[in-house]
Every structure is written in structure tokens, then in C-alpha cells.
Amino acid sequence: MTPDEFRRHGRAVVDWIADYYERIESYPVLSQVQPGEIRAGLPSTPPQQGEPFAAMLADIEPLIMPGITHWQSPNFFAFFPANASFPAMLGDMLSSGLAVQGMLWAT
User: Fold this and answer.
1) Whole-model pTM?
2) Helix or strand (DSSP H, E) at 19
3) Which of 61, 72, 73, 93 is deepest in the core (most CB within 10 A)?
4) How far apart, in whole angstroms, are the C-alpha atoms of residue 33 and residue 19?
């Protein structure tokens, strides 16, 4: 992935996340699938050639989202409080982008 592709796909991911939070209340709070259903919806072997990033992103809604417990939903009242925020997500992105191994002050 080139830096320009990273910018384009990164914007698409940020847009997807923002859209998700705008409609998070519309999802059932808990997973709606049985064990193995998500795996059954995926190919049995990895592709020989990569697919376009947009195709992968389009697979999230029909294949992955039915199996998600929406921890940040305002309708979820169990286990832990809602603890994600857009500033925290941006901080995670910066931390991942730097890929710092923070084991010692010198690293």
C-alpha cells in the first residue's frame, strides 16, 4: 500500500467508523449469530490475489457486524462502561502509526 492509498483507505475507514457511531443505536446490542456462522460466510482459503480495499470494507456490514456485541451502544448496560471516544481512536491511530516499542525510555 502506497502512502496515497493509505490516505484514501484511511479516510474511508474513518468515515465508516463515524457512520457506525452515528447509527450505533440501530444495531442489536448483542451478537445475532451462532458460533461458526461468520467463519462459514468467509472463503475457506485466502485469495491468491488481494481484493480491493473497498470490497473488504463492504464485507464488514453483512459478514462481521451481525456477530458483534456493540459495547459502545447506549443500549448496552453490562460488564464495562462505554469507554471509546473519537480522541482516543485518533490517539490509537497515531500510536500505531509510530509503531514505537515503549519498553524502555530509550526505545
Assistant:
1) 0.85
2) helix 3-22
3) 73
4) 23
